[in-house]
Amino acid sequence: MQRIPVVIPAGQATSGAVDIPERRVLCGISIPTSMTGATVSYEISFDGGSTYLPVYGVDSATLHSTSIGSTARFIAVNSAVFLASHTGFKSKIRVVAVSNQTPETTINLHFREVR
Questions:
Q1: Which residue range forms the structural domain that includes residue 100?
Q2: What is the CATH number for 19?
Q3: Which of 51, 78, 104, 114 is 20 to 30 A distant from 96 in Cα terms?
């Protein structure tokens, strides 16, 4: 498993973007105690970061989100939703919180190898 941190700046709800590692798919996130809000969602770019699209579930009608709770924890993510992000292109991902963060918040994204 590979861990990559993303930072949501204080006063904002969207993290900076990180490259999705080659031949890997998102499988979990680590949330710190300081995280505010009940859920996070995700945006993916397939063009190197020019355009970001919200990630929807396989039903294409529901925004894919993860409930985060109120304590630090690791949360497994449904990797099947993110398989399309494993395209071989320079895909990027960022995390969107339901509310602005105070203070700055670091979330760890965990990626597993796709075989």
A1: 2-113
A2: 2.60.120
A3: 114
